[in-house]
Amino acid sequence: MQVSGYSLVIIIYFLIWFPVFAQHTLTVDPEDLIVLDLGFRRGDLQWQISYDNNTWNDLPGETKDSLTYKPDQFPAYFRVRMMEGTCLPHYSETVEVIVAGLPSVVTTAVQSTGTINAVVSGNVTGIGASAVTGKGVVYGTRPHPVLAGNLYTINGSGTGSFTALLTGLTSNTLYYVRAYATNSQGTIYGEEYSFRTQSAVLYVIGDTGPAGGIIFYDKGGYSDGWRYLEVAPAAWSGGPDPWTDVDWGCYEDFTGQTSTGIGTGKENTERILTNGCMTGNPAVAIAAGASIGGYTDWFLPSREELHVLYNVLYYLGGSNFRYIYGLHGLTYTSSSELDAMSAFGVAFGDGGSIQHLKIMATIAVRPVRRF
Question: In the prediction, which pLDDT does 166 show?
Answer without folding.
Answer: 97
